[in-house]
Amino acid sequence: MYSYILDIIILTWLFISSIYLFKSVKSYNRLFKTKDNKDLVAELDSLIKELSNTKLELNKIDEKLQNYILTSQNNLKYRHILRYNPFTPKGQENQSFVIVLLDENKAGIALNFIYTGDQYRIYPKLVSQKNKNELTPEEQQAIELAIKK
């Protein structure tokens, strides 16, 4: 007789526990369902995959950025400013100057600023291996000094 009573108590307890378990599972599923009707675990797995893909892409972008930085630093590899006096009287100070900006191929631009007493005249020239004869001695000297540095 006691065994029947004990069996009824255990069955009742199992029934009530099952009801609470089903309610908990239902609440869990309702709480953690996404808008695509995936469960939370599947959604977290997809987010982890996207995160790893994003990390790979960021590493690639970082490598490209480092290459661009190195390349941009080499764009103006040779630079120099040379002050000089273009006129024969040595009474005036060296107020004229040449700015040379060259890349790693020793090609670029030479800007010659000549002071004429009351104004500056600017003479830009492209610098390459072909037009070395067209440059003034001051521009050639500035190019040589830029390359030596």
Number of helices: 3
Q: Gap between N and C termini, in Å?
A: 107 Å
Number of E-state strands: 4
Low-confidence parts: none
Calculate Rg over CA atoms: 40 Å
The chain-level mean pLDDT equals 86
Give me the secondary-structure category: alpha+beta
Give, in spatial order, the strands making up the sheet with the most strands: 1-2-3-4
Overall domain count: 2
Largest sheet: 4 strands, antiparallel
* Anisotropy-based shape: rod-shaped
Q: SSE order, as H and E? A: HHEEEEH
Residues in helix, %: 40-55%
Content of β-strand? 15-25%
Description of the structure:
It is a single chain. With 149 residues, the chain is an alpha+beta fold. The protein has two domains: 2-72, no CATH class; 76-148, no CATH class. 53% of the residues lie in helices and 20% in strands. It has three helices and four strands; from the N terminus they run ααββββα. It has helices at residues 2-32, 40-75, 137-148; strands spanning 78-84, 96-102, 108-115, 120-127. The protein has a four-stranded antiparallel sheet with strand order 1-2-3-4, covered by helices on one side. Strand 2 (96-102) and strand 3 form a beta hairpin. The relative contact order is 0.09. The model has no long low-confidence stretch (mean pLDDT 86).
What are the key terms here?
4-stranded antiparallel beta sheet, alpha+beta, single chain, 149 residues, 53% helix
Helices and strands, with pairings:
Elements (H helix, E strand, L loop, with lengths): L1 H31 L7 H36 L2 E7 L11 E7 L5 E8 L4 E8 L9 H12 L1
Antiparallel strand pairs: 1-2, 2-3, 3-4
